[in-house]
Amino acid sequence: MLTDITERKNAEIRLAVQAEELQRSGRELEEFACLASQDLQEPLRVVASYCDIIARRYADRLDDDGREFIANAVDGASRMQSLIDDLVTYSRAGREELTLAPFDLDEAVEHARRSLQALIAENQAVIEFCDLPRIVGDQAMIAQVFHNLIGNAIKYRAEAPPLVRISAERDKDDWIVSVTDNGIGIETEFAERIFGIFQRPDTLKDFPSNGLGLAMCRRIVTRHGGRIWATVAEEPGATIRFTIPISPVMSDRAAK
User: What Cα–Cα distance (Å) separates residue 58 from each residue in 51, 53, 62?
Assistant: First the structure.
């Protein structure tokens, strides 16, 4: 019996072409982000610099409204610079080669904790973790994941001092890493959308954020062959979980 597979082959060719087109579009977007950052950063610095000069040189001639207007202009320029920096970081997270090597997750968490030391002290936050597994991955990028998750847990705090607990458990060929906090929590309808670029619930509009932190986490975790998701519970707070595949080279040690 003969089977006509022409249509199936054509479908496979179309899928291959679409995949290549998506990759090309992604590369072009990343290149655009880097070029745009270089072109936009300098005029923003000029605006912020001149506003600062006006505020200092003509302070005695400005009324309260004038000083408020200048402060708003400086704040707007600063937030735009921060957004551009985050876009470049997000772009690089998908473009740079992974530097894979074995390391302890404790080291990545500790690196993130040190980088957030001022924020942690200011909010009297407590970060708990110990005996996390040894994995194979890009330590700098995984540290960036913890930096974003811990930073979000502190930023979206409730009235009580922030408490962040980080743990890991093995599930067949993966490590499942959990980052749990006692903050304001995540609405059920946004449990998946929060990992998209610029996706922020209206309830968080009063919190300063560019909406790129969790999107960057998903990009890094995906590049490591894992996945990331949010768990919504009835009690206050939220839990973000992500998986990291257990390297065959590390499996014997990890099982001990």
Answer: 10, 8, 6
Q: What is the pLDDT of residues 112-138, one digit of tens each?
A: 999 999 999 999 999 999 889 999 999
More confident residue, 67 or 7: 67
- The CATH number corresponding to 101-254 among 3.40.50.970, 3.40.50.2300, 3.20.20.70, 3.30.565.10 equals 3.30.565.10
Specify whether the CB–CB gap between 253 and 246 falls below 8 A: no
Q: How far is CA 11 from the centre of its chain?
A: 36
Provide the total of helices (H) and of strands (E) in the chain, helices listed first.
Answer: 7, 7
* DSSP-based three-state secondary structure for 36: helix
At residue 206, the 3 state secondary structure works out as coil
- Give me 246's structure tokens: 């257990």
**Mean pLDDT in residue range 158-172:** 93
Residues in the chain: 256
**Domain locations along the chain:** 6-95, 101-254
Tokens 């093995």 label which residue? 170
Residue 180 has pLDDT above 70, yes or no: yes
Tell me which architecture the domain covering 6-95 has in CATH.
Answer: Orthogonal Bundle (1.10)
H or E segment at 109?
helix 105-115
> What confidence category does residue 162 fall into, taking pLDDT thresholds of 50, 70 and 90?
very high
- pLDDT at position 104 over 90: yes
The DSSP symbol for 159 reads S
